[in-house]
Hints:
70 residues, mainly alpha, flat
Amino acid sequence: MSNPSEHTRPSDRTREAEREDAQTSAHADRAPTAEEEKLAEDQKLDPEVAEHYEEMTERGASQQGEGRLP
């Protein structure tokens, strides 16, 4: 096993794989089935969770400080 503090140089094959990965956007592996869509639509939202989500959305929108884009 190599020492983690040692620097290595990636091979051309590794660099090519990284370039290909960088060009790939995230996506689902498949579309939902009609049954899955219906089950998702039929789900009841927990009012506490919905309220918390709204609160966090509002907090995030007015967030100030480090990491905030102008």
